[in-house]
Amino acid sequence: MSDEIFLGLDLATAGARLHAVTSQGKVLTERSLPLPPTQAPARGHVEQLPTYLEVARDLIRHVSADLGRRVGAVRALSITGTSGTVVPCARDGRPTGSAILYNDQRAWAQAEHLSDAGFPSTATSPLARIGWLEANAPARLYLHTPDVVATGLLGRVPPADTSHALKAGIDPVAAGWDTQQLDVLGILPRTLPDLVHPGTELGVVCADAAAETGLPAGVTVIAGMTDGCTAQIGAGAVRIGDTVGMLGTTLVLKAVSVEAVTGYDGAVYSHYAPDGSYWPGGASNVGADVIRSEFGNRNLTELEALADRHGVASAVRYPLPTVGERFPFNRPKAEGFILGEATTPGAAYRALLEGVAFAERLGLEALAALGVKVVSHRIAGGGSQSRLWNRIRATVLDRPVTRPANASSGYGAAVLALASHTRSSLIDVVATTEQTAEVIDPDASQTEGLQRNFERLCEELSRRGYLNTAYQKQI
Predict the structure, then answer these.
(1) What is the domain range of residue 369?
(2) pLDDT (tens digit per residue) in 273-331
(3) What b/e readout covers 295-327, taking b as 16+ CB neighbours within 10 angstroms?
(4) Which of 41, 213, 412, 448 would you call most buried, defined as having the most Cβ atoms within 10 angstroms of its Cβ?
(5) Which pTM was predicted?
């Protein structure tokens, strides 16, 4: 087992990345390639040419070449992608049209039909998206991006995993579609794949795919999970009490629970994990994307130094990039705001960093109010590369936070493949593969000032009617 290798393929929006990982968690090689740019043929539409299989084949060829003779030790692979992207396909799983991405909002009419029938929905609902396709550009089969790649590797259409299908009106435990919701939208069950739990063996790579990619015969394809879930695996947050804040374009919070946790008008949802636990979480609209929109091409190293010298922010803000927030409160008409003045670049940057950290604290408190146990918190994503931001987050949360060495979605997918192939629990596998880059302690000298700013923020959020009353008393 010590020489065995596992692959994790991450199909993001801008590109794809493939990790080759040993059974001890060491990354042997990783490769990335771009995916076609997204297109907006009409207002609210977001599409992408579905070249996922072609790009995946190229990546696997590159990694196979990198591994050389060691490619014979590859045992299994798993695929992760964005939640909610839908690809119209023929019955054999080959795409017949552009992928409709997770943030496409064309299906507002279908969402209204679902809501009127007693199934609260939004225009970004994957099921509403499938309903729109069925009404306007029907296909024989609707798949997620990992399903398209798995089909090409297996030579047949496999079941889809319940993680990628979670927001499409399914029962994640029974692994079945909700026929009542399908009936509302006129979707025939035969146009949808069967469902299985994450970690299920889907089959082995077929001879043609092995010849095209350089993989050995007998490599098993494992049903995956969404990119947020596999990043959670990569971060090592798989035990009860573990939480992780993934700070990228947006802030995503994930946790582990023995029971399904939902709440706040759909803002909190729970994935069903391979070990039978539940992974509740929610996604905020605040995050690092605001930095790009507000500071453009400015040198972030210089901005961080200025913000560090400034100390606790003189202004308090909730940095929403556009109208609407999903989590820690679900308010479609919420707007960002700033209290006080930030007259210098350092002051403005510091207030932004604190605002995102405050959203992280609010999110963890919202989860705790629903009964989620919060003991050990990890931080991941591109934003966790900022030492100042990490220290602010630890201080706002008033607890040490851990930054894992490998918390990417592709790495987590490889760990999932390892656990499934060896018939091991994720907890045991993570215990042997997890590597910590650093532990960040709170800055006691700034605790009081940040607490004052947090209280000012909460008062304003309450005044605007944004906070959920279910957990306001905790703040």
Answers:
(1) 237-404+443-472
(2) 999 999 999 989 899 888 888 898 889 999 999 999 999 999 999 999 988 898 998 88
(3) eeeeebeebbebbbebebbbbbbbbbbeeebbb
(4) 412
(5) 0.91
Residue 409 lies in a domain: no
Q: In total, how many domains does the chain have?
A: 2
Which of these, 148, 144, 158, 149, lies nearest to 203 by C-alpha position? 158
What is the model's pLDDT at position 122?
84
Domain boundary residue among 204, 227, 250?
A: 227
Residues 212, 244: one domain?
no
Q: Looking at residue 151, which CATH number applies to its domain?
A: 3.30.420.40
| Nearest CA among 1, 6, 4 for reference residue 411 | 6
Residue type for 369, please? Answer: A
| Residue whose pair of structure tokens reads 């592709």 in the numeric block | 410
How far out from the chain centre does Cα 398 lie?
Answer: 25
Closest of 208, 471, 385 to residue 393, by C-alpha: 385
Shared-domain flag, residues 339 and 461 = yes
Q: Rounded to whole angstroms, what are the CA distances from 289 to 101, 111, 251, 294?
A: 19, 27, 10, 9
Q: Are residues 328 and 219 in the same domain?
A: no
Nearest to 11 by CA among 126, 218, 149, 186: 149
Residues of the chain where predicted confidence (pLDDT) is lower than 50: 470-475
Residues 201 and 269 in one domain: no
Give pLDDT, residue 46: 93
In whole angstroms, what is the distance from residue 56 CA to residue 217 CA?
18
429 three-state secondary structure: helix
Task: Please state, in angstroms and rounded to a whole number, the distance separating the CA atoms of residues 153 and 143.
Answer: 15
